Amino acid sequence: MVLACIVLAVAAGLALWWRTAEGTANAATPGDRSVEAGFSRDMAVHHQQAVEMSFIVRDRTENEEVRTLAYDVINTQATQRGMMLGWLETWELNKTSSQAPMTWMGHGSMYEAKDGSLMPGMATNTQIDQLRKANGKDAEILYLQLMTAHHKGGIDMARGAVKMADDEKVKRLAQSMVNGQQSEMDLMADMLAQRGAKASR
């Protein structure tokens, strides 16, 4: 009788340990519809456009200040994009989703995607074409305006991840995006003022 009780107690203990361990494992690996997965997918797309615009303006102006900013955006956001795509790979999740962008924030139906602008802050295809055709000061102003809007949208998304994500490394990266992009927005406001312009949209 005593042995049977001991066996039952051990079995119950093992079952509890397994449920706890399984829950911990599941918590450590975000699921397909998690905040972490949605943020990583959406921000990877968002970042890709910032990198694209920065490569364009780099070849449309000789101004070293703008070229340095573009270089910083390229390096920072390409690196962060690589991290997020790497996480999705590690989590064994697809890098794309059938869900609308920002569904993980509860905003999936609040933004009407148009002309290549899939999320708030993203430039349209028409605006990208305008940047490709601009030169010198005109290219600088358009880039700074588009990137300011882009950063605003990115910061809102990153703040959502800071607030809602469970994975600490995701929260840390998102907070670094908020800090870094806000700093760049302040810089871009000064650069626009120097050119007699201001942020649009």
Describe this structure in words.
With 201 residues, the protein is an all-alpha fold. Helix content is 71%, strand content 0%. It is built from six helices and no strands. The longest helix is centred in the last third of the chain and has 29 residues. It is elongated and about 50 Å long. The N terminus is likely disordered.
Summarize this structure as a short list of keywords or feature phrases.
elongated, single chain, 201 residues, disordered N terminus
List the helices and strands and how they pair.
Layout: H1 2-28, H2 35-58, H3 64-90, H4 125-133, H5 136-164, H6 168-194
Number of strands: 0
| pLDDT < 50 stretches | 1-26
Described by strand count, sense and barrel closure, the largest sheet is:
none
Outline type: elongated
- Global structural class: mainly alpha
Assign a percent range to the helix content.
Answer: over 70%
Averaged pLDDT, please? 88
Order of helices and strands: HHHHHH
Residue fraction in strands: under 5%
Can you count the helices?
Answer: 6
Q: Terminal Cα separation, in Å?
A: 77 Å
Cα-based radius of gyration, to the nearest Å: 22 Å
